[in-house]
């Protein structure tokens, strides 16, 4: 009887309990070499390649594209080739393998690494804590390696590029590569989507020889437009007026990737933090000339952090300890179709207005193409949500541990303001400050808010 080995989904270095299958690079019965791409998995931040742990035949795949696999659950079965060199059982593969450990079992510190979509190298520091996050803190390995482009179907591209192509409905086989060694880049996919040169489902870019023995299924007709909704049914009777049942309320969709992690982190924050919110308006009437509002917001937050350090801090609720930070790293909430990302604007207290704008532009671009390094998504000391770019005046934004405070900036408005001797119309920005009342007093929060408003009121 053949010796069958089961490969369990490893900890991909992000501390998440599961990942979603994006694409299998093999099928059952295929032969595969050690460290060749087995599949692409989507985590909370990126699409990463999972390498094969064996040289041999794939006998079983657990899950189809779109399925969620728990960390430590079976991912694939292999029949190792007895004549090929295999990795030693004790040799590190760069991930944590094996079934999920029971609660209370120790986790060895083996310096795991993750294949991630970034340009970083080794993440410095020996402590394995809070090195990668989308919203909140997650444990990861201490090494981050550049993602390698795999050649699949004759096309060289990293998993993040393949995921973007799938999202934009672009056929990678028809995209003209501009990267080194014929690698398709993020920009190549975006350009193809913009000019419509490689639509998914179009005629193939290259003919497939008959000798390939590929079975071509008959093409199905394109689905017609959905019937319009009317007050009457097809039978001419009025549609239901009763509340919809659970069955009729829509098709449930399981959260995946970023949204799945966001749901967990928000629930944990709600359970752990004691939030209190103060609101006021920043008066911008004295501003001279056109100014960068976001840069002014960042500068005002820095000024408030220097005036009241208690809110530029981390709080450990378990040990009731507080860490005040001499530097200011601001987590900037970025809303995307995939969910919420919070990249860190590092050393905001050392940047001028131009530096702030350039850094924010870079972070947003990296978030949009899912190439942002893990190190940029963690370790911020205070947060900013500029929701007023869309709508809304005041809010109660969520404080995510270990941070103590988050500032919400509402929509600019022109308000009638009473002044000495009459009234004036001033441009004002609503500001909401939510803080963890376990770590800061109401007085500290009020003084922080006043320092922020005073800086925003400066002419320039």
TrEMBL record:
For this UniProt record, the keywords arranged alphabetically read as follows: Acyltransferase, Lipoyl, Transferase
Residue span(s) of domain Peripheral subunit-binding (PSBD)? 156-193
**What's the protein here called?**
Dihydrolipoamide acetyltransferase component of pyruvate dehydrogenase complex
Give the species.
Dyella ginsengisoli
Q: Which cofactors, if any, are listed as required?
A: (R)-lipoate
Instruction: Write down the CDD domains for this protein, in alphabetical order.
Output: lipoyl_domain (cd06849)
Domain Lipoyl-binding: residue ranges? 4-79
The UniProt annotation puts the region (Disordered) at: 81-130, 211-256
Q: Name one Pfam family in it.
A: 2-oxoacid_dh
Family, as annotated: Belongs to the 2-oxoacid dehydrogenase family.
Polar residues bias (residue ranges)? 243-252
PANTHER family reported in the protein's UniProt record: DIHYDROLIPOAMIDE ACETYLTRANSFERASE COMPONENT OF PYRUVATE DEHYDROGENASE COMPLEX
């Amino acid at each position: 009887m053949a010796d069958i080995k089961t490969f369990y989904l490893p900890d991909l270095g992000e501390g998440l309990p599961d990942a979603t299958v994006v694409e299998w690079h093999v099928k059952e019965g295929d032969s595969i070499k050690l460290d060749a791409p087995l599949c692409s998995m989507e985590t909370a931040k990126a699409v990463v390649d999972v390498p094969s742990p064996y040289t041999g035949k794939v006998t079983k795949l657990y899950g189809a594209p779109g399925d969620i696999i728990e960390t430590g659950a079976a991912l694939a079965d292999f029949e190792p080739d007895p004549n090929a060199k295999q990795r030693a059982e004790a040799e590190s593969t760069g991930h944590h393998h094996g079934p999920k450990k029971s609660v209370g079992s120790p986790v060895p510190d083996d310096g795991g690494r993750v294949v991630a979509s970034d340009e970083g190298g080794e993440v410095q520091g020996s402590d394995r804590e809070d090195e990668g996050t989308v919203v909140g803190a997650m444990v990861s390995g201490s090494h981050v390696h550049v993602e390698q482009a795999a050649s699949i179907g004759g096309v060289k591209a990293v998993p993040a590029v393949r995921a973007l192509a799938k999202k934009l409905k672009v056929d990678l086989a028809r995209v003209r590569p501009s990267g080194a060694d014929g690698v398709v880049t993020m920009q190549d996919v975006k350009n193809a989507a913009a000019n419509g040169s490689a639509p998914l489902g179009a005629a193939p870019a290259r003919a497939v020889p008959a000798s390939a023995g590929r079975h071509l299924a008959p093409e199905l007709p394109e689905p017609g437009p959905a019937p319009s909704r009317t007050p009457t049914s097809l039978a001419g009777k009025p549609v239901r007026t009763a509340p919809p049942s659970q069955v009729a309320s829509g098709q449930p969709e399981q959260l995946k990737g970023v949204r799945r992690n966001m749901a967990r982190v928000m629930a944990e924050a709600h359970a752990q933090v004691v939030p209190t919110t103060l609101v006021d308006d920043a008066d911008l009437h004295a501003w001279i000339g056109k100014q960068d509002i976001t840069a002014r917001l960042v500068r005002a937050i820095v000024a408030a952090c220097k005036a009241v350090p208690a809110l530029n801090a981390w709080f450990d609720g378990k040990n009731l300890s507080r860490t005040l930070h001499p530097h200011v790293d601001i987590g900037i909430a970025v809303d995307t179709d995939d969910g919420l990302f919070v990249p860190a604007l590092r050393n905001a207290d050392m940047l001028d207005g131009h530096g702030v704008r350039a850094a924010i532009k870079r972070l947003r671009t990296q978030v949009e193409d899912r190439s942002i390094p893990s190190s940029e998504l963690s370790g911020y000391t205070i947060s900013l949500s500029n929701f007023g770019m869309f709508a809304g005046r005041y809010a109660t934004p969520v404080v995510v541990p270990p941070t103590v405070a988050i500032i919400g900036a509402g929509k600019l408005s022109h308000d009638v303001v009473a002044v000495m001797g009459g009234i004036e119309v001033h441009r004002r920005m609503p500001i909401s400050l939510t803080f963890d009342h376990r770590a800061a007093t109401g007085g500290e929060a009020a003084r922080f808010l006043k320092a922020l408003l005073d800086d925003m009121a400066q002419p320039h």
